UniProtKB/TrEMBL annotation:
Stated name of the protein: Short-chain dehydrogenase
Transmembrane segment boundaries: none
Domain Ketoreductase: 8-197
Record's keyword annotation contains Oxidoreductase: yes
Native organism taxonomy: Bacteria, Thermotogati, Deinococcota, Deinococci, Deinococcales
Protein family: Belongs to the short-chain dehydrogenases/reductases (SDR) family.
Gene3D superfamilies from the UniProt entry: NAD(P)-binding Rossmann-like Domain
InterPro entries named in the record: KR_dom, NAD(P)-bd_dom_sf, SDR_fam
Keywords, in A-Z order: Oxidoreductase
Database matches in SMART domains: PKS_KR
Domain of life: Bacteria
């Protein structure tokens, strides 16, 4: 039997686990076809297989892609458009974080965070603008409260997220005449594998990846005339210090 093509599709970076995967799962259940990316081919293919099997008719592609490689991103976005006939949602999620005093921060660590979290976001958006313009799409940039609040040891990470917030605000101004919405989502503590952390029951107080996924779906369902351009998200009951 011929599978009915999906009416909408999404491209999500850094999505073999955590927030990216949760967003992908929520969108598949909303009827979207999704492409998820990761630097690790085996992980992203396994995640895509799970997504496609969770909903009858669900469609998901998993591709290995490093967001620091602009040419690779363009190639994968073009293949997504060819596979699904267009692009409606871009979720810019790929990111890395290492925290140390600036005196100990290596040039390599600085470059890795700036290139992934900031330049990688620009490359991702740049690759997708043409396709998103065709349908009046929606861009989500996954930033952080660290994009407004400096942290000890957060020199490179803070710089990348402050920069991402600035980029997101400019994207809003530059792309709205193309019919593209842009929202920056800025969570606090989220129970993910970020920074080598392993989620556990002790993380129950934190924001869960599914919470960000639900927020994304809710934003997509906002009236067309309305745009929450920046959403800060915090745990409602963090532990007392």
């Amino acid at each position: 039997m011929t599978q009915t093509p999906p009416s909408k599709s999404a491209f999500i970076t850094g999505a073999s686990k955590g927030i990216g995967l949760a967003v992908a799962r929520a969108l598949v259940h909303e009827g979207y076809a999704v492409t998820i990316t990761s630097r690790h081919q085996d992980e992203v293919e396994a995640a895509a297989g799970e997504l496609a099997g969770e909903r009858q008719g669900g469609q998901a592609r998993g591709v290995a892609c490093d967001v620091r490689d602009a040419a690779s991103l363009q190639r994968e976005v073009d293949q997504h458009v060819q596979a699904y006939g267009g692009l409606d949602v871009l979720f810019v999620n790929a990111g890395v974080g290492r925290f140390m005093n600036v005196a100990e921060l290596s040039i390599e660590d600085w470059d890795s965070m700036i290139q992934t979290n900031l330049s990688g976001a620009f490359y991702t958006v740049k690759a997708a603008i043409g396709a998103l313009s065709q349908r009046g799409g929606y861009i989500f940039t996954l930033s952080s409260l660290a994009g407004r609040n400096p942290l000890p040891g957060g020199g490179a990470y803070n710089a990348s997220k402050f920069g991402l917030n600035g980029l997101s605000e400019v994207l809003n101004l530059d792309l709205r005449d193309r019919g593209i919405k842009v929202t920056q989502i800025m969570p606090g503590s989220v129970a993910t594998h970020f920074g080598g952390h392993t989620p556990s029951e002790a993380d129950a107080w934190k924001i869960q990846p599914e919470d960000i996924a639900q927020l994304t779906v809710d934003l997509l369902n906002m009236p067309e005339r309305t745009l929450p351009s920046r959403v800060e998200v915090r745990p409602s009951r963090p532990p007392r210090k």
